[in-house]
Amino acid sequence: MGLTVISSSPQALKKQPNPEVLHTRTIDREDFTLPEYGEPDSTRALIKIQDGCDVMCSFCLIPFARGHERSRLRDDVIREAEILVAGGYREIVLTGVNVGQYRQDETDLVGLIAQLEAVEGLERIRISSIEPTTITNALLDRMAASSKLCPYLHIPLQSGDDTVLSAMNRPYDVEEFTRLIRKAIAAIPRLGLGTDLMVGFPGETEEAFEHTLGIARELPFPTFMSLPIPNVLVPLPRSCRTRCRLRSLVNVQDYSRSCPALNAWPLQNGISDPPCPSSSSPE
Ligand code: SF4
């Protein structure tokens, strides 16, 4: 069962009181096409090139909500880029659930980027978040050599602990991730990096969390998103310990004072603020 919001024009993308939702048994390429839409008053526009995911991380509902991986038609992407550029947009952000898995026939993500680089008037191409296991040497080489592809990679790590990564069903370990980051830094001048880190995953011990803190300090991420475990698959207690861990991680980025999401995050059952019980027991 697929759920897809249908929109026929940019105007329809404004928040509607009752969104129109299509329920289908299969999901076609056309289902995720929102043509010729850029941010108002911006030189940047988004193009969704891919949808769905086959990875099945244990915390994630996307494979159920968005279905299997599928890629938008290459010529359709190029046509939309040309229309956006003609409309005044100068930068394209390639988006999708798992953009690194883009493929149409012989064209992969790098091939698509090469064709987009040939669009006259398009000055910058940016990749949104990309899974670490889909970053190829060819992509790093392209990013290093291209005058249009922005040197920025947002690569979700999620946890700095192998046991937690395994429980999350993430298809890499910390060493592989670290090696990838070092290779990317060596290959791409002035590379910008970002990541996602999650705290409070079931079974995360104090030691496991320390591993995440350690990797956050060690790797040169100028930006990272720190998130409590999403409360979507099962209701999870938002305990004092998880809150403390999130605060510690946020502090690594010196971001705590400007993190409204953290400050607004309610504690369950009236559990009060720190002092947090220090314990090596899991969440
Ligand atoms: S790779 Fe991303 S979209 Fe796919 S299941 Fe994992 S978290 Fe969800």
In short:
With 283 residues, the chain is an alpha/beta fold.
Summarize the SSE layout with pairings.
Elements (H helix, E strand, L loop, with lengths): L1 E4 L15 E4 L19 E5 L1 E2 L10 H5 L3 E2 L2 H13 L4 E5 L7 E2 L2 E2 H9 L6 E4 L9 H9 L6 E3 L7 H7 L5 H14 L4 E8 L6 H13 L4 E6 L11 H13 L7 H4 L20
Parallel strand pairs: 3-6, 6-9, 10-11, 11-12
Antiparallel strand pairs: 1-2, 4-5, 7-8
Iron/sulfur cluster binds next to helix 1.
Task: Name the features.
alpha/beta, three-stranded parallel sheet, Transcription Regulator spoIIAA, 12 strands, 17% strand, disordered C terminus, 283 residues, 2 domains, disordered N terminus, 9 helices, binds iron/sulfur cluster
Number of strands: 12
Ends: how far apart? 34 Å
Number of helices: 9
| Number of self-contained structural domains | 2
CATH 2nd-level architecture of the largest domain: 2-Layer Sandwich
CATH hierarchy class name of the largest domain: Alpha Beta
Main beta sheet: strand number and arrangement? Answer: 3 strands, parallel
Low-confidence stretches: 1-9, 231-237, 255-283
Mean pLDDT, as a whole number? 79
Q: Largest sheet, order of strands side by side?
A: 3-6-9
Q: Would you give the CATH topology of the largest domain?
A: Transcription Regulator spoIIAA
Measured as a percent range, the helix fraction is: 25-40%
Task: Tell me the series of helices and strands, N- to C-terminal.
Answer: EEEEHEHEEEHEHEHHEHEHH
Radius of gyration: 20 Å
How much of the polypeptide forms β-strand, as a percent range? 15-25%
Categorize the overall geometry: globular
Helix/sheet category: alpha/beta
**What compounds are bound to the protein?**
iron/sulfur cluster
